[in-house]
From TrEMBL:
Natural source organism: Streptobacillus felis
Pfam families in UniProt: Acetate_kinase
Similarity remark: Belongs to the acetokinase family.
Protein name: Acetate kinase
A GO term for molecular function: magnesium ion binding
GO biological process, one term: acetate metabolic process
Intracellular or extracellular location(s): Cytoplasm
Length: 406
């Protein structure tokens, strides 16, 4: 089945076409700055080995961007279809499914209204995700649309893990609880890690692998997975919680928020911007949130860069340690995401001093930049250390296919 995968953001639109039979990406692209001046478009056709990078294009709204994408998909030079009717299904990334949606969802008139109602749980993401679904239903009314939720994989967490110790009424009325994010990525790398462990001869008859998945990018989260089910994850009610991130503060004392707001007379929106956009690595380093720039500055002796780098690694180590106890041991640590896949320095720093948990990184192998999925652990390491390239688009296409095929 050839599936169009869409990730509709507030001002961007990522798309790809995936052949689920071969699990091959045929084409992928990006519309940027939708509704903003200087919109642009990029695309790469993997079948024809052709690409266009950041070509100016007019995208006043998402409908125009999606119309443009459909035209490109049937273009004689860059396309992969003769007509849009050859698109067999459309899989949409939706950030938040709340408690109601814990599995992929075939969209109809009734449940899209339900999706709109829970958009308050992710006001920066869900409205744009839902808008993409509505536009595609308008443009291609006869093709099935499936929503795949970032939060769904985390729905197996027990109440003791997802509840907050605030008045219970706030959970009942406002659904305030831990939801977790990056679920599509964590689910994908878990399945790859299972295969890699089997190839190493680590065979558990009931699939009872214990894996700690570290999705490390500008946004970052860590998840404890046992038997394919999530026991806990670092992000919470929103993606602000957990690790030190590129511009997000991660876990802090809640009273700090109240204190800063009172001292500077900040509004809720101003405080939200401070915590989400000006904290984390950027807040400590002060120059950039980019991990590459941070690492370069640290290696050149910048003390604030070193502090930010150490804080980032320390926060990751704390979650790995706590999840090691939760899982009562671990079969594999997985590094994925932009930083997890590409920063050997971050992987090395995180794995330092974890030998007592049978985690032994091959430091020489870790320094070699190799594409694909790689085992970075020493032969005597009881815990495998994998670098796995995440593929959320492929996971969305597989989930879409499985739902439609029953």
């Amino acid at each position: 089945m050839k599936i169009l995968v869409l990730n509709s953001g507030s001002s961007s639109l990522k798309f790809s076409v995936i052949d689920t039979a071969s699990e091959v990406v045929l084409i992928k692209g990006l519309c940027e700055r939708i509704g903003i001046e200087n919109s642009r478009f990029s695309i790469k056709n993997f079948v024809k080995n052709k690409k266009i990078d950041k070509i100016p294009e007019l995208f006043p709204n998402h409908k125009r961007a999606l119309e443009f994408v459909l035209n490109v998909l049937v273009d004689s030079e860059f396309g992969v279809f003769e007509t849009v009717d050859q698109i067999q299904a459309i899989g949409h990334r939706v950030v938040h499914g709340g408690e109601e949606f814990t599995e992929p969802l075939l969209i109809n008139d009734k449940n899209i209204l339900s999706l709109e109602k829970i958009s308050t749980l992710a006001p920066l993401h869900n409205p744009a995700n839902v808008m993409g679904i509505k536009v595609m239903r308008e443009l291609l009314p006869n093709i099935p649309n499936v929503a795949v939720f970032d939060t769904a994989f985390h729905s197996t967490m027990p109440a003791k893990a997802f509840m907050y110790a605030i008045p219970y009424e706030e959970y009942e009325k406002l659904k305030i609880r831990k939801y977790g994010f990056h679920g599509t990525s964590h689910k994908y790398v878990y399945k790859v890690a299972e295969k890699l462990l089997l190839e190493k001869g680590v065979n558990k008859p009931y699939g009872g692998y214990k894996i700690i998945s570290c999705h490390l990018g500008n946004g970052a989260s860590i998840t404890a997975i046992k038997d394919g089910k999530v026991l806990d994850t670092s992000m919470g009610f929103t993606p602000l919680a957990g690790l030190v991130m590129g511009t997000r503060c991660g876990d802090i004392d809640p009273s700090i928020v109240l204190h800063i707001m009172q001292e500077y007379h900040l509004s809720v929106e101003e405080m939200s911007q401070k915590l989400n956009k000006r904290s984390g690595v950027l807040g400590i380093f002060g120059k950039s949130s980019d991990n590459r720039e941070l690492t370069e500055a640290m290696l050149n002796g910048d003390e604030r860069a070193k502090l930010a780098f150490d804080m980032l690694a320390y926060s990751i180590q704390k979650f790995i340690g706590s999840y090691y106890i939760l899982l009562q041991g671990v079969d594999a640590i997985v590094f994925t995401g932009g930083i997890g896949e590409n920063s050997s320095e971050t992987r090395q720093k995180v794995c330092e001093n974890l030998e007592f948990m049978n985690i032994n990184l091959d430091y020489d192998k870790n320094k070699i930049r190799v594409s694909g999925d790689v085992d970075l652990s020493l032969e005597n390491s009881k815990t495998s250390i994998f670098k796995i390239e995440t593929n959320e688009e492929l996971m969305i296409s597989i989930e879409t296919y499985n739902l439609l095929k029953g």
